[in-house]
Structure formats: C-alpha cells, structure tokens
Protein 1
Amino acid sequence: MSRVSFLANLVVFAALAQTHNDWPTYGHDPAGTRYSPLAQINARNVTTLRRAWTFHMSPDSAARLPVARVGEATPLVVNGKLFLTTPYNQVVALEPETGKLLWSYALPSGGNPAVRGLEYYPGDQRSPPQIVFGTSDAKLISLNVNTGKPVPGFGDEGLVDLKQGVLNGFPKAFYDLSSPPIMYQDLVITGAHTQEAPSLGAAGDTRAWDIHTGKLVWQFHSVPQPGEIGHETWEGDSWKGRSGTNVWGMMTVDVQRGLVFMPFGQSTYDYYGGDRKGANLFGNCLVALEAKTGKLKWYFQTVHHDVWDYDPSAPPILFDVTRNGRTIPAIAEIGKTALLYILDRRTGRPVYGVEERPVPASDVEGEHSWPTQPFPLRPPPLGRNSFKADEIANVTPDHQAYCTHLLASEGGMHNAGPFTPYGSSLSVVFPGTLGGNDWNPMSFDPHLGYLFVNTQDLGSIGKIAKNKEGSLTPYSRTSPLGGVGRFWDRDKGWPCQQPPWGRLFAINVNTGEIAWQSVLGVTDELPEGHQNTGRPNIGGSLATAGGLVFIGATTDSRFRAFESKTGRELWVTKLEASAHSAPMTFQGKDGKQYVVVVATGGGFLADTPTSDVVAAFSLP
C-alpha cells in the first residue's frame, strides 16, 4: 500500500470512528436519522441509567430561575468537545464527560444564537475546524472549535450579515435564524426565520455560503420569480415582496447524490390568502436542490394554498425502503398536518401513493381556498384531524364543564373534518396551529426499518375577522381566547377532547403501516390510575443500536426511554423542566456512553421556562 493510500484510509477510518462515537451534526448524520450505533446503554440495563452531570446555561447562577429562557438545542460532540448554543447570548464548549466549561463566546451584539443549535465543519488545509450558527440579529458566525474565537477569513472577522439581499425593500423587516445550518462539502446552507404577518416583508430564500470566505455561492428563490418554475402558482403580482415561504426548521443532505432537502413553511399571511390566489409554490413544500449549485431537482407540496399555518417543518429524514424486492432510496417528511409522506428521494414521487381529496371550502370574503389536499395512502394520519361534540374531554367534571362551555362560544363552534378552515364563524380545528407535529425531529432504526414519530392532539379555535381599512393585514384570526386560541384549558394545559393527547409512533417504512404506538406523557394533577393521558409535546427523539428510543418533549418534565421494537416504556426520570428539544448520545474518552438533553420548559405549550439545564445520563 502506498503512503498516500494509507493516509487516505486513515482519514476514512477516523471519519467512521467520529460518526460512531460522536454526534457531529444536528441529526447525527447528514441524512438526519438521529440514530447512533452505540449500544452500551441498552434495553436490558437502561433502568439503571442515572444523572452523570448537569450544566447550567445561565452564566449568572443567582439569576437562573427569575430569567429562565427557552432552549431547544441539540448539542454536538466532536473530538472531545461538546458544543451548544444557549438562550443566554452565548455559545459554549464543554468537556463531554463532566460538563466542565472549556470556553464560552458571548455574542457581541447581545443577541442570542439560534435556539435549536449549530453545525460543525471538520476543517481542511485552508480553514480550521469550525462551528457555524445563526443569530437572533441575523448574523452567521463561525468560531474556531479550539479557541471559541471568530474565524478571521469568514465574512467580516467571522461574521456574515444575513439581511443583505433578502429584505425585499423592507429595511425593518423581521429576519433571523432559529435553526442550525447544514454543511455540504465547503458550503454552509442556511434557511430563514421570517415574519408570519403582514404578508409583505423579507424573503425566505435558502442560501449557500463558502465556509472559507463567507461569500454567497447560491440563492434559491422560495417564491419563484418571473420565468422560474412555480411562478404561475401566484396570481398577478402577488409574488412581489411576499414573506414567509421559509425553511425555519432543519435541512438534511443526501451526500451520495449531492442533494439538499428543504421543508418550506407557508407563505404569509398565515390565515388569509385572498391576496395570494393560487397554490403558492414553494410554500408548504419539500424541495430538493443540487447542493452544490442550488438548482431545483424536484418538489412535493404537502398543503395547497395554506390558510392554517400547516408548515412541514420537521427535518426530512433519509432511509432505504425495501418493497417488492427493490431498494428505494426514500425520504420522509411530516408537518403540522400529522400526515407522513414517504417519497422516493430521487424523484419526489410517493412510495405508497397520495390521493387528492376534497376538503371544506372557506366562506371568507375574497378567499379562494384550494378544493383538495394531498393525503398519503399509507401510513394513516398520526394525529387527530376532526372533532365531534361527543368527544369532549371528561377526565374530570370541572374540565368537562369548562370545555363544554368553550365549545358553545358564540352559538357553538363547528368542525367539518380534515382541513376545516377558519371561517366567518368560530371553528374548532384539528390539528391546531402548533400542529400534530411541529419541528419535532423523527428518528430511524435501520435494523428494524422503524421510523419513530411523536405527535400531539391539540386543536385550535378561531374565526377570520375583517380589520379596519388601511390595516397591513386585511383580515385576522381571532377567538374568545385571543388571536391564536387553543382548544384547551390554558391554565391547566389540558386539551378539551378525550385523551390521548400525545403519542409516540413506530412506522414500518417497508410496509407504510404503524408498527406500534404508545401514549407519551402523564398528567400529574389527575388521580392515580387516570394520569396516563399523553401530553402535548414539542421536541424529538433519538434511536440507538441498544434497542432504545429516548425522548423528552412532553409538558410533564419527563425524559423517557422506550423499547424500539415494542414501544414499551422502560425508563423515565423527572427533569427540572420540560425538555422541548431533541436528545443526543456519544461515547466519551472514558469509554462510557452518555445521553444528553436540554431542559428549560417554555415555548408555545404554556409551561413557563423554569430551568436552564443541560442534563447528561450514563450507566453507574
């Protein structure tokens, strides 16, 4: 063997070892499988799992609880360092085995790094190993992993201004990054976090930047310009200055085929589309691009002309399907509709079929709702999408009375089945605005062929009301519980329909069927024996070769491990707060496997932020 071949093999072996033992990107690997081949912690010994260390993200210990902030990040572990964005204006590096602080970087502007995390670049002859992240004040920052200092050659001394080229003539438009970018070779690919109202504002374009220089390499127009594919889905000039239509969640990459997959949210305004007649591409689309050039390969729209805020925001997940003796390179995407689409990732065609079904029409003046929506033939919906009055919750007499009174508001709310619109009178809509699945990352076990998906059943209530003449938005959603009302007792956080309120599913991707489902979460306030209701949840799961699925997510402040083959809950521990994040795992230099999760509480599920912890678990 030549010296060159020997060195090349060493690089390959080192990369494999890193992938096995570390957690180098948000989804563990570019495909976003959130699957670790580590098996030291397994179904036989997980009951002995215990807290190994705790790190408090707030730099001021005295101020932790009074100023607790929402954290949804998944840490990365690479080459003996754990990297994490915090909601306290900092990015930190920790010793993974102990939680000891190695270095911290405070954002110079006082903004916050992206709430869901960061990305890692391994470095090359031109640039050192780096971590890259967006900020709440629209910067893209690259730090040297060893020093925690900005990389001088990247943009302006380590910072790139993300607002350049996307403001559409609205200099004060809202724009930032809330999720990590993804790397493909030497490109940093970024999504966008834009406004939800009014209709006009910053563009939600996806862009790629050179990791060595910070220079823009390509820009994909999320609202197609004249002459581009999809422009015809916008009537007249309704495309001009349109905001939304953005990847505010996470992206994944097919490294072998050089494709990047992007889940685009809906176009603004969320609940009224009379000023954007048409299907509105690339809103609510899973889009595949050539990662190197930004050239469109295919798209699949999950909701036509969205007026529900039904973004497909979960990270697309890549795996192979074995069907009729053939191996199909596949991709799965789920969104707020709780409809799971399994597609051929080479073409975007459904593996198990999709059917356009008629849905209820809007009666709002000027609205042109789409007459049909796409339903996958397999698997079935993974969340409630309709409601009848006799399905009101009866977990306690007081709660039943509250929900019955709420349902009777303004003469009684109605539901006409899946995709019931918010109309001129009050509707109760399932899934609600938070969705059956929000940005919750799925995970995948390649040995079982099981895809793990957590969902919630939390409806919304509302109607569309006309605003005063001259308002930026001609119509707004309103309800007896405020602009964005949920179908629950908000003081208790109890939904108003019969449980279960949260579930964890395993989908056999080789059949498209549900392999198992488990209730996810408990309601502590209910009497013993009646607590197994499931809970609303935001956050995702982790699958391991130890036959386990780890998940926090629920509003009951628990962290759990399920047996991946059966869905049986094997282990549960109480955290300082709810973990609205996605866990990860790694093997430390001490040979131990650790599982780590961020738990702050807060967010959209009415549980106030009460903690600032990163919690690590290992075997005794």
Protein 2
Amino acid sequence: MGIRATHTWSELIDALYKLRGVEIHSGIIDRLKFKLTEVSEKRIYIYRYISSNEGEYVDLTRSFHVVHDILNNTGKYTTYSDRVSRQYKHRRFVLAILRQCPLFIVTYNSKENTYEVRYSDDTTTDQHVEEKKRRVVAIVGAGAAIGLGPEGQQPSSHYLTEQLLKNTDDGKTNLLQKIKKTFPNKYKDNFEAYFHVVEQLASFYPDWKQKGSGEYIVQHPLSPFINPTKVFKLTDKQKSPNEVLKSMYMELMSLINVYNTYFEQEKNNALSWYTNFWKGPQNIIWDIFTFNYDTTIETSLQEYIDGYYSLSGDYQHFEPQKYIDDKKNSEKHTINHVHGCLLYSGEKPNFKVDREIQEVYSHNQFKWKDFQTNLDNITCRSLSAGRGQSGDLLVQDSIITGLHKTDKIVSQPFSFYRTQMDVQLIENDSLLIVGYSFNDYYVNNLLESLTLYHNNYRVAVIDFLVIEQLDSQKEYAIAEYFYNHKERAFMNHFFERLLQDDAQSNVWEGFDYSHVSEHYLTSKNGKVMFHIGGFKEAAKHKEQIYEFLTANK
C-alpha cells in the first residue's frame, strides 16, 4: 500500500530538495526505497518509465533547487512576476515528473491547499503512472477571433457590420441604410440587430402585401397594428425583405470565411499562438462550446468529436448517439458549434437512391467538406425559414444570428449542443471563457448556475480591456472599467457570484492586482483568473492558465 504523507507545496519541495538515499525531510517517513542513482552528492536521478518501456533518467536536482530558492525568496530574480512565472513553470515540471514516477502519487487538496503524497515501498513495480487527463469546459465568443484576420480585416463586430452594410445587395431598397439612420447609436455596430430588424420586416411582409385585397389570414398578430411605411415602402420596385435577408447571410458567411481561410494559411506561422493554445495542454480534454462560425479550433486540434459522420465524400450527417458513445470511449476533445458553422446547411443532399436516409436525416444540419461546396448549395435555394409561436419569422440555416437565438436552436445539432453545454457545466467545475460578450441571456443563465453546482470551481476569463492608465493607476483603471461598462451588467454580476464575499461591495475589490502589469488578475479567493489583454496576450501565459484550470482536481 505504501506510505502516505501530507505536505504543503513548500514542504514537498523541501522534502525532495533534501533527499539523500532513503532519507526525507523532517523524518516524516522512516523507511522509503527509491529507484535512485546517486551520481554525486549534489546530483540525484529518479528513474521513470515511458510508453516504450525503455527507461530514461531525468535530472530533477536542478529543478528542485531552483524551486526551493524561489519559494524561499532567494536566487537572482529581477521582479516579483519573474519569480512567480518561474514558480509556475517549475511546479508544473516537478508535478509532471512525480505523477509519471511509480514511486509517487501526488493528489492536490484544494480546500486545504496541501499535497497528499503516496510513497510506494515496492521497488519492483514497473507500472507507469499516467497523469490523469481532466475535462475543462471552454466557452468561446467572437472576441476569440480578433487577431485571426489579415491586416485591415479583423473580424470585430464593428468591421463585420460595416462590411455587411457596404456589400449587401438589396436592390433599390437601401433598406439597411434606412435602418442605420433610424437606429440609436449603440445599435449601429451590432450586425445581429440588423438581422433581427430585417427578419421582423419579413415576418410582417406577407400580411402587408395582402392589405386592400379583401379578407386575408393574418400570419403575424401585430401586423394590423404596425405601419411599415417609415422604413419600407411597398410601392418601390425592390427586393422583398426575405431576399435582402438572404443577401445578408451570404455576405456575413463570406466575411467570416476570409479570416477562416487566412487562418488555414497562417496556423503554423503568424497565428501559431492560437493553434498552440488549443492543442497545448497534455492533461486537458477540452469540451468547447463556440458561438463562432469559423473552423479555426477544428483546424488547431485535428482530432475531435462533433457528432458528424460521413455519408459520402461531400457531406456528413449528425448522429448524437454516436457522439455520446465516442465521448465515453475516447479522450478526444469535443467541439460544439452552438450557433452554427460555415460548413453547415439545412438543405437535403440530393439522394437519388436511399430515401430512408433522407427521411431519417431530413431535419438535421448537414456538414459539407468545404465552405465553397456549402455556399453553392445554399445559393441555389431559399433560406430555411419557419415561424415561432409569436408569428416571428425564424431563419434557421448554416448560422444562427439575430436576437431570436433561443427560438432557433431547436433542431439538430443546435439543441443537442445546447443541452451538452448545460450537462458539461454540471459535470465539470473548471471553465474557460474566451471573448464572450455576456450578451446571450440563455447562456448567462447557464453560467450563473455554476456556483450552484460547484463549491470548488475554477474560472479563467479572457477579455480585452482598453485601459489607458494601466501602468500608472492599475487598480483604479480596472475599477473604472467595471463601473463604466454597465451595458455588460451580467458580466459584473457573474464575477460577483464567483468572487463571493470578497466582492460584496464592488466587484473590483475581489481581485489581487499583483500581476496587472502582465495583463491578468487573480481573485483573492483563488477561484478566478481574469486576463485583460486579449486572447493573444493571454496565450503567452497558457501554462499558467492550464495549471490554474486543473489545480482543483
């Protein structure tokens, strides 16, 4: 069974630092046999096994000495952040070695902040102890894509809205420009609001066209009470709002594909920071729920489960049961496009023989081999559209946008991904949030429940804050950010729940500002890490993020 002992991190390093033969610090263990080869009094090697069953020796003495010096605030380190950064690095290295050594099994107790170490007394054991992989939920929003586009074409909400208004073909209507002039300022950079308005106009359009022609069936209950002439004159020779809507979808998808294609070209060069972040951690299995339409994460990971399986060379269909089985029987990452993807399409493929398959999968979104194939498929038909109980038109196709998302994610795979997001937040207490604006209410409600499901959660949030006084007035600058961004009230509310008693008066009071010069904060209760310099800047600290997210396991 071996011998068990409980150490703080400092005690653990002290014990290893003072190892000589079978002796250990403080006499905690009376008899302990190690597979050690003592080359000299100052150099100790611990034998470990690798997958090929061929042994190799790993020199731990240097690492132990350096970590010991860091913890005791000695050694030549220029700054506090340098000392902390090296501490993270060496802690991760030492634990990785210990977890792979048959003589140690190290378990972290986050409540007591101690390490329980089981020292084996069996010197004949050849079993290789693997570090257990941990599932971590990742919520990915539009902010994660900033920096992935070519120069001058970064996919920010402002840029996408600007290009959408500029390039959408709406005939002589100039409908989008009329909407822009009518909108209050805060909506002008929000392309989802434009989609919502055009969808609403399309919802009323059939009723308005029938007015004056005698009795007609009202398809939207509000249409008799609304006058369309303010922005939409039915007497003009113009495209219908449905046709304008289709042009908007085609344009938005094409804009997203620009940076998606650029990423394919630069994934191992200029954009390798993004690729390496997702495929980097050896002990993390991602369950990624992305609200973006690109395929950059799939390209980064290569191997993953998304529930799509091949029917032919051009397209795949969605099988939720196979997704569940594959997830149980493998350690693959999962990718869930909750709001659609450039490769999805609701159009039924042209089945010439197997009508049974057509019936079974007719309500699924199919996944095509590339964007151009999907685009060719979409442009030859009308967008799929139905009506909700309110009578509003619900466009439901490759991507889900606008302000009616909860009504639109009712078919596969969207409803399945939405359910999986809830399940994974219940089952896992580690959460990474990258570039999410906290503007989708149904997602916010799921996130708010995290503190109800778990006491010992870990949440890392990556955002980009423009703070001019960052270097001179750090704490004040962060406080001002939270105070001035009241339109993102839920984000503040979410942080208040995570920070608990430390943020009862003001959310910014719950943070430790020691690392703000490195563009991240940690919470006083140890449960939150907040990166404020954007995704690319945060990726420089990816090892610390991985360590933080898995420390509570």
